[in-house]
Specification:
Layout lengths: L1 E7 L8 H4 L3 E4 L14 E2 L4 E14 L13 E3 L5 E7 L10 E7 L18 E8 L3 E7 L4 E6 L8 E5 L8 E9 L5 E8 L10 E6 L8 E4 L17 E6 L2 E8 L2 E8 L7 E6 L16 E12 L5 E11 L6 E4 L6 E5 L28 E3 L25 E8 L5 E13 L4 E10 L9 E3 L10 E6 L8 E9 L15 E9 L15 E6 L8 E8 L3 E8 L5 E10 L2 E8 L6 E9 L2 E9 L1
Antiparallel strand pairs: 1-4, 1-28, 2-22, 3-26, 4-31, 5-6, 6-7, 8-9, 9-10, 10-11, 12-13, 13-14, 14-15, 16-17, 17-18, 18-19, 20-21, 21-22, 21-23, 23-24, 25-26, 26-27, 27-28, 29-30, 30-31, 32-33, 33-36, 34-35, 34-37, 37-38
Length: 609
């Protein structure tokens, strides 16, 4: 079947303080109250664009939690056009004794029939897929107390050979694996996983495994990669990591609301690793039983990682706001705070300031719209408010927009998909999440419009979550998997009763979604000055977004026309920049603040008190 895309210009809701402060108490264990959704409908078709998509239903399940925070790498595309997709499949609620890996393949022409049975002979969950050897494949998943590795030498046919892996003696239960393979013949197997129990003083640890002979033996087992041990962290969040590979470069991304967002990279097959702290958590060694916090903006748990053809890492993450004010696992979640962030290795990292990831105008925010803040829930009716009928549902990734996926193609185009509560689509009691896509044709320098993948009569009663791209795309088309069902939220978390969930693969024509949005930067730059008025004891801040390198200078002029302050920032590169001016000692009053950007001058009135 085909669906149509909605095109939306860059309209977003700018929350007032009272809306930003709306919060609810939720538990880290994700136990939630039963809801009673109505089956009436409020439908707003939004703005249509004549873009058609090809969509295939490749899998089904009643078990509806494909990931606790993010999904494993489950979708692989081979150079000859074949594709494979796996998911957690189970039909017998509520304990799902039949739960296991659903497996389907595309032979270049069509997908196989939807499978009725898992590939394992015992209950498993959360599979991760990779090619293996010259023409084989490998799947890692977990049993209640160990990892299960299934592999076979011939793609798409033959019996699966299995082996089970245990953790260290202190914490033998391993969970939530990710597996990738590297090398020309895919014989190097790399895997990360969580310990289920405490290990070496950490509540949960993230461990690394490696095999150089296709999984026959493991020369690295249960390793704490340097930089992720107890001297750095108290806990690594359940299922909160991703892996990517390009040539011989292997990368791991890990992050959540409760610890740093970090990138680990190896260029020597996992022998050594370099660590980058992309976002430094304001409360290091966070422990629910000890640490109390002020409100802070944070990575919401939904993170995504891709490597471009040169091995450079590109990262996307959901943004939320949290507060932990009493001992225990219950915390406050600010459910209307909204944003999707982007970072790559050419960018500066984020600080540990509690407002560093604030997606709204704030002197302490390090987010710049259309530079590192690139996604949000769109204001479809342009009234400046969120028109939701209920409180947005919370998944493992708790931001209003979250669950990002990212892909960089051979032409250096960055594609980011994310799931967000979308106004105008609801069942009368709760609002559906839709999957939206935004692209950059130049490795994140500029960004195009955003497109709704689900704005069609077929999906009026559907919620789309957990988008994922495969490792590669072809020259013309992009492929994306997503989970669709008829109710907002999940049955596992008590949002609704169990319903059928569908695993769909969408083919997107790249030319239909790739473009550059020039509207915010018709002069090749945008400029924002804050705070205004500014206290005489504070720093004046400015944000500048450049589409080309420019010489930047700042001048402060009093009411007599006298220049009282100047600062030359030099020539700044393409992208977003935060500028500061120390006006301490400047007399209170009204001034003109002139910013020179290249040959153009922008003057704004500034009050100092």
């Amino acid at each position: 079947m085909s669906v149509l895309l909605t095109l939306n210009s860059q309209n977003r809701v700018l929350l007032k303080n009272d809306a930003r402060n709306k919060c609810s108490k939720i538990d880290y264990a994700r136990q939630k109250a039963e809801l009673n959704p109505d089956q009436t409908i409020g439908y707003n078709p939004g703005l249509k664009s004549p873009i058609a998509l090809t969509e295939d239903n490749v899998g089904e399940t009643r078990f509806d939690k494909q990931g606790n925070y993010i999904v494993a790498n489950r979708f692989w595309r081979y150079d000859d056009g074949r594709m494979n997709f796996v998911w957690t499949m189970g039909y017998n609620e509520t304990t799902f004794p039949d739960r296991g890996t659903g497996y389907n393949k595309f032979d270049g022409t069509s997908w196989d029939p939807i499978p009725a049975f898992r590939i394992e002979n015992t209950k498993t969950g959360w599979p991760s897929y990779a090619p293996l050897g010259l023409d084989g494949e490998i799947i890692a998943t977990h049993l209640p107390d160990r990892l299960r590795i299934s592999s076979r030498a011939t793609y798409g046919t033959g019996d699966w050979t299995t082996q089970d892996l245990l953790g260290p003696t202190e914490a033998p239960k391993l969970t939530w694996p990710r597996v990738i393979t590297s090398g020309a013949d895919h014989q190097n197997v790399h895997m990360i996983c969580n310990t289920y129990d405490a290990y070496q003083g950490m509540e949960q640890a993230m461990l690394y495994w490696r095999s150089t002979d296709g999984g026959a033996t493991w020369d690295i087992q249960n390793q704490l990669i340097p930089g992720v041990g107890p001297e750095y962290y108290y806990n690594f969040t359940t299922d909160g990591y991703a892996m990517a590979v390009e040539g011989n470069t292997i990368a791991i991304l890990a992050g959540s609301a409760w610890h740093d967002l970090i990138l680990l990279k190896s260029t020597d097959n996992g022998d050594s690793w370099n660590k980058t702290v992309i976002w430094e958590h304001p409360y290091p060694f966070f422990d629910f039983e000890v640490t109390l916090t002020d409100t802070f903006y944070c990575v919401d748990g939904g993170i995504a990682l891709a490597l471009d053809k040169n091995g450079m890492a590109h990262v996307s993450f959901g943004i939320s706001r949290a507060l932990h004010e009493t001992v225990g696992t219950t915390f406050s979640h600010f459910y209307l705070v909204d944003g999707i962030g982007y970072w790559n290795e050419t960018r500066p990292t984020f600080s540990n300031n509690k407002k560093a990831l604030c997606p709204y105008t704030d002197p302490e925010s390090e987010m710049v719209l259309d530079y590192n803040l690139i996604g949000f829930s769109p204001d479809l009716n342009n009234n400046g408010e969120y028109d939701f009928v209920g409180q947005p549902t919370v998944y493992g990734s708790m931001g209003l927009s979250g669950m990002p996926a990212i892909h960089v193609d051979q032409n250096n185009t960055v594609f980011i998909a994310y799931s967000t509560t979308t106004e105008g689509f609801n069942n009368g009691a709760l609002d559906y999440k839709h999957v939206w896509v935004r692209t950059s044709p130049d490795l994140g320098t500029s960004w195009g419009e955003i497109y709704d993948m689900m704005d069609n009569i077929v999906h009026i009663f559907d919620e789309g979550i957990m988008p994922q791209f495969p490792n590669t795309s072809d020259n013309e088309n992009l492929y994306m998997a997503l989970n669709l069902d008829s109710e907002p939220g999940t049955a596992i978390d008590g949002d609704h009763s169990y319903v059928d969930n569908f695993q769909n693969i969408i083919k997107i024509v790249k030319d239909d979604v790739v473009g550059v949005n020039q509207q915010p930067n018709k002069n090749n730059f945008s400029f924002e000055l804050f705070p205004n008025p500014v206290p005489a004891t504070a720093l004046l801040n400015a944000k500048v977004l450049l589409n080309e390198p420019k010489q930047i200078g700042l001048k402060l002029i009093d009411i007599t026309g006298k220049t009282v302050y100047t600062k030359d920032f030099g020539t700044l590169s393409i992208g977003g920049h935060k500028l500061t001016a120390d006006l301490k000692g400047t007399a209170s009053g009204t001034y003109l603040c002139s910013i020179q950007i290249g040959t153009e001058i922008i003057t704004k009135r500034l009050a100092i008190f």
